């Protein structure tokens, strides 16, 4: 018990404040989708990988498996649809076989979409694996969001383990009644009843939690009180104020063609 508390205290001293993590996440996503250059998502994916390696709260193996499972099928689909069957009229053909044409324009669009999706998945997976409901609530409250909004967002994170547990319990209950739940056909037939029961139980759980928090004064106090102890400092406060400003400057510079970053077409031709 003592060692667990000490481990949590050590992690808190080596981690950013949750408000800083939220600001960095939002600014990174704005850069990914606001600047039309593959350099930005590549840089963010690399930074997220480094953060997953050194983070005390995120398992690199779990993060890599989650990103790979979501991103690799997307890469295959985009490569086939855009890379080989790009519908443009004026294209630069690199390779051709029958109806399939490997074009620079198709590869550029496929690369840009896939890198943006991969950056989105990488960031969200890293944030989701490293945050719990209490950290998210503290971060949102530190950003001056209303307590009700912070509670709803934090509850969504906190309900994920509950949904997993309740789903397993429902499947085990069906199995005890003689259903062959090892068959995917049977699971598909049971899916509507499981989803209905799961939705009802989750709503009841959320309502009970909200009633308890209201009885304890949720939203009645204007003073922001953290549920956990978080490391904060002048550098993080500066980062929370400077990151949104820098993000806006970079996006506006990109829109105004002032930011000299290569496009996907230029990078493919250079390769």
TrEMBL record:
Q: Does the keyword Membrane apply?
A: yes
Q: Which InterPro entries match?
A: ABC/ECF_trnsptr_transmembrane, ECF_transporter_component
Q: What topology in the membrane does the UniProt record assign?
A: Multi-pass membrane protein
Pfam families for this protein:
CbiQ
Ranges annotated as spanning the membrane: 22-51, 63-86, 106-131, 143-164, 243-261
Name the UniProt key words of this record, in alphabetical order.
Cell membrane, Membrane, Transmembrane, Transmembrane helix
Q: Where located? A: Membrane
Cellular component terms (Gene Ontology): plasma membrane
- Chain coiled-coil ranges: none
In terms of CDD domains, this protein maps to:
EcfT
Q: What is this protein called?
A: Energy-coupling factor transporter transmembrane protein EcfT
- Organism, as annotated: Brevibacterium aurantiacum
Taxonomic lineage from the root? Bacteria, Bacillati, Actinomycetota, Actinomycetes, Micrococcales
